Amino acid sequence: MQSPKTYREKRPWGEFIEFTRNSRSTVKILIVNPHEAFSLQKHKNRDEFWYVISGTGTVTVGHEVTAVSPGENYFIPKDTNHRVEAGNEQLNILEISFGDFDEGDITRIEDRYGRIK
Q: Which has the least CB within 10 A, 32, 57, 105, 115?
């Protein structure tokens, strides 16, 4: 799968941002508490697209660690290491997963909560 392209359209009442169209996907909002992080992980059966809604922190995709800003987006292909870590405030991210979604499809590489599998 290729990285989805966001589409933005202005209207008289404001605007909308479209993330997917006619795609099989799972949509979640990730809420990461200040100074917390989820596992450095990867998935075999799904790609992920992240859109930063609000907050501060960093995103790791592969070997690249990037400070995030609201409005930025990231694409994580299958089998790519990734993680989100919040800064001094809560970090909220829209996640759209493409492929066979299963919470058991997580291979944890590092985890500060002792959940390596």
A: 115
* pLDDT tens by residue, 14-62: 788 888 777 788 899 999 999 999 899 999 999 999 999 999 999 999 9
Q: In what order do the strands lie in the sheet with 25-32?
A: 25-32, 91-99, 46-54, 73-76
Tokens of residue 44, six digits:
């075999």
Cα-to-chain-centroid distance, residue 76: 8
CA distance 59 to 42: 14
Q: In the chain, what are the domains?
A: 23-110 (2.60.120.10)
| 22 Rama sector, left if φ>0, alpha if ψ -120 to 50, beta otherwise | left
